[in-house]
Design brief:
This protein has 371 residues and is of the alpha/beta class. It contains twelve helices and ten strands. The model is unreliable at 1-17 and 225-247 (pLDDT under 50).
């Protein structure tokens, strides 16, 4: 059964779908900071998100692969989602990684993301029972999650970590679902990205709100903001019966609309420009966690139709990204964050820290890629 956006199942307490989200630009796949004893360092998470909020990033993915999501328990995951959302400015699109091994657990975390006012959820294929993940099982899993999720669903194709490479035909079939709005493709192949874009061209188009300059409008931008010091509270709403006057509410946000189809997001710096040229909406990049400006420069040059400059900017970061994010992994990204003005710290065991030689290599690679 497929639900329509904005409508809940009759007789159900399930929340209705949010509006489809417009995703364009570069999203940082952010890390999860830890203390030396491996407790989540929430204050550093707040500081990092506030720092990203001052950048020109389109938004952030919280609890993706770079966020060590599989190493957090459910309580920690919920608290990380809440902490990051509270620290982000309303204008940044927030995507929550919510994948679990069952439909029920995935939907429960999607509901927690909705309560924290995220804009969409990122869902990968279950991996533990990999031999049982037939095309029919994967199709049913994603449809079941999308049927029940209160937030729009973004498919996550990452065969490097999940032993399943989503067939283009399967992605195209899922793209017809009313609550599946896009895919993050981390297959690392330009040809695969091009095939996804071509195969999903006939997916349903959705009308979404955007700003007057056609930037994404998040749910947090549209929600009424009642600050502790703002708003007028009528006397009838107060137990004391005394009205409280305060500052007038902020003026309503001016928006317009645009139509979007199924949105493909690249997951690789090395294929970013080629994916954008093929029709990708943007990218979710681990390297943007430590070098957001350098990643954005590729996108901005492409938006300005300066392909030579965009190619030059991509070539500047392709090898560092491949070594730091692709080969050294989470520990490499975290040390790069430490070096480049964000808090990284150590990864959770069993992921090992970098050696002194590896740390020096990361710093050499980033020497010309500072924020």
């Amino acid at each position: 059964m497929c639900y329509q956006p904005g409508h809940a199942e009759k007789g159900s307490s399930r929340a209705p779908y949010n509006e489809a989200m417009y995703m364009e630009g570069i999203f940082a796949a952010i890390t999860t900071p830890f203390y030396a004893d491996e407790r989540v360092y929430y204050r550093k998470l707040e500081a990092n998100v506030a720092h990203y909020s001052r950048s020109l990033l389109a938004g952030m993915v919280v609890l993706g692969s770079t966020g060590e999501a599989v190493e957090l328990n459910d309580e920690e995951s919920r608290e990380v989602l809440k902490t990051a959302a509270a620290a982000a400015v309303p204008e940044k699109v927030l995507i929550a990684g919510v994948a679990r091994e069952s439909v029920k657990a995935t939907v429960e975390l999607a509901e927690a993301a909705a309560a924290a006012r995220y804009d969409a959820v990122l869902v990968r294929t279950p991996t533990y029972y990999a031999p049982a993940m037939s095309e029919a099982a994967v199709l049913h899993y994603f449809r079941s999650v999308a049927d029940r999720s209160p937030l729009p669903v973004i498919l996550y194709n990452i065969p490097r970590f999940a032993p399943y490479k989503m067939p283009v035909e399967l992605a195209a079939e899922l793209a017809q679902h009313a609550n599946i709005i896009g895919i993050k493709d981390s297959a690392g192949s330009v040809e695969h990205a091009k095939a996804l874009i071509e195969a999903t061209k006939d997916a349903p188009r959705r009308t979404v709100p955007v700003t007057t300059v056609f930037e994404p409008v998040t749910g947090r931008m549209l929600s009424p903001r009642v600050e502790a010091e703002g708003g007028f509270v009528p006397a009838g709403n107060l137990g004391s019966g005394v009205a409280v006057a305060a500052a007038a509410p902020a003026p309503a946000l001016k928006t317009r609309t645009r139509e979007v189809g199924f949105q493909v997001l690249s997951g690789s710096v090395g294929t970013l420009l080629e994916s954008l040229e093929a029709g990708a909406a943007g990218a979710v990049l681990a390297f943007a966690a430590c070098a957001p400006q350098a990643c954005q420069e590729v996108y901005f040059a492409w938006k300005d139709h300066d392909l030579a400059l965009a190619r030059e900017k991509q070539e500047r970061i392709a090898a560092p990204s491949q070594r730091i994010a692709g080969e050294l992994g989470i520990s490499g990204i975290k040390h790069a964050c430490d070096f480049n003005g964000y808090y990284g710290g150590r990864a959770r065991l069993p992921l090992l820290p970098l050696t002194t030689e590896q740390k020096n290599e990361v710093e050499r690679l980033l020497d010309g890629i500072r924020n």
